[in-house]
């Protein structure tokens, strides 16, 4: 199993931050610093095939979100970490939900940002597989830049923070086409996670941008309807990448949530 490149800073109870497709762990940098400063140990891995983490070898099996989750667990095991809070945005949310399916007893709480519990429609699955084929055929991530990446940020962000849009484009292009294709194939075949969420007894915070057109409010309501202990925070003016577009609002929401659960978490 491939090792992941991981940012690991701070001391205290552990929060794992899982990044979105098609970027990497740098999206979490401002939030990592604040959570660590507030007394948390924060781990932010590059998921398989992204950033500095290698693309899984063909010998490791077919691409899958479950395989991503197992790789994250392996990194935690290597650090002798048992209990964690897991936060995942978009693809990172899919991985977080796979981690619940694999070891729910090890997850003290969950933060799901701009993601969904349902699997892909046949059309969405076909689009993913086509993008995977296109980036490999061209040897470039340019097929992602329009329209897929254009949908990641809100019109508000595009208008008032063009630097954020440029940064996202740069992150996208820094990843390998092989890693992009592997992840698209993995997400295309992911399973529905509503049952796993319905059986998860611990606190869950949903965070979503008001202008998220990729995982809109209707997808959040599907999760709220099945979660035993779910709550939601809506980030005004943000699109699909809330943690990048409004990092301070997301940090504040996460810290409020984490502070509420911290004493029982620390006591096991």
Detail the topology: elements first, then pairings.
Elements: E1 6-9, E2 14-18, H1 29-37, E3 41-45, H2 65-78, E4 84-89, H3 91-102, E5 107-113, H4 122-138, H5 142-145, H6 155-160, H7 162-174, H8 177-188, H9 194-198, E6 204-209, H10 217-226, E7 230-235, H11 242-245, H12 247-266
Helix pairs in contact: 1-12, 2-3, 4-8
* Number of helices in the DSSP assignment: 12
Task: Assign the CATH superfamily.
Answer: Alpha/Beta hydrolase fold, catalytic domain
- Please name the CATH topology: Rossmann fold
CATH architecture: 3-Layer(aba) Sandwich
Average residue-wise pLDDT: 94
What's the CATH first level? Alpha Beta
Number of strands: 7
Q: Give the N-to-C terminal Cα separation.
A: 30 Å
- Measured as a percent range, the helix fraction is 40-55%
Overview of the molecule:
The protein has about 270 residues and is of the alpha/beta class. It has one domain: Alpha/Beta hydrolase fold, catalytic domain (Rossmann fold). The protein contains twelve helices and seven strands. A seven-stranded mixed sheet has the order 1-3-2-4-5-6-7, sandwiched between helices. It starts with 5 loop residues before the first strand and ends with a helix.
Salient structural properties:
268 residues, alpha/beta, Rossmann fold, seven-stranded mixed beta sheet, 12 helices, 7 strands, 47% helix
